Amino acid sequence: MLSREAIEKMFVDAGALLEGHFLLTSGRHSNRYMQCAQVLQYPAYTEALSRILADRFRNDGVDVVVGPAMGGIIVAYEVARQLGVRGIFCERENGVMTLRRGFSIQPGERILVVEDVITTGGSVMEVMEVTKARGGEVVGVAVLVDRSGGKVDLGLRTEAALVMEIDSWEADSCPLCREGTLPITKPGSRK
């Protein structure tokens, strides 16, 4: 079992924790950003972090691991590989999260939803709705990083390899905007 310090060191060593002024997918602003793609480019880190998540759900009868594109694709694959089940992903089509590419969920299948990082849990909730609409039973959520400090309530068991409290603000109350010294950037996959 990896210590919190060892897990955090993986993210730091990979250059995944960024400092600046960021516009998050949720619309909120933050002075720190977790770019999990930086840690996921290293197979050894990906395997170790995904093992933490897979081990926490190993006895839950998971049939399918589902993640949202983009951040959840690699995590879904590796957690599914370690559990010996299918790994698929949802993606947006015309702004709506959906299953494409011939992926399916059968009624009664037990689903583990995974994501790289959550702030508000919005993308995870969308994936949960997609799976439930197809008759899947969501048994839990597993994320590499919970940047809410454990405050996000998704209504079911949620496990994170790393829990961090990273400040974020609504745009109209962002202290970085008021200071006006750092330009805002939109990292990640959705512009």
Characterise this structure:
The protein is an alpha/beta fold. The protein has a single domain (4-179), classed as Rossmann fold (3-Layer(aba) Sandwich). Helix content is 31%, strand content 30%. The chain has six helices and nine strands, in the order H-E-E-H-H-E-H-E-E-E-H-E-E-E-H. The strands form two sheets. It has a six-stranded mixed beta sheet, sandwiched between helices. It has a three-stranded antiparallel beta sheet with strand order 1-2-9. Strand 3 (64-68), helix 4 (71-83) and strand 4 form a beta-alpha-beta unit. The mean pLDDT is 91.
Please trace the helix and strand order, writing H or E for each element. Answer: HEEHHEHEEEHEEEH
Using the 3D structure, state the CATH architecture: 3-Layer(aba) Sandwich
| Count of individual beta strands | 9
Computed Rg: 16 Å
**Helix run count:** 6
SSE blueprint:
Elements: H1 4-13, E1 17-23, E2 29-34, H2 36-40, H3 43-57, E3 64-68, H4 71-83, E4 86-93, E5 96-99, E6 110-118, H5 122-133, E7 137-146, E8 158-163, E9 168-169, H6 175-179
Parallel strand pairs: 3-4, 3-6, 6-7, 7-8
Antiparallel strand pairs: 1-2, 2-9, 4-5
What's the quick description here?
This protein has 191 residues and is an alpha/beta fold. It contains six helices and nine strands.
Keyphrases for this structure?
191 residues; alpha/beta; Rossmann fold; six-stranded mixed β-sheet; three-stranded antiparallel β-sheet
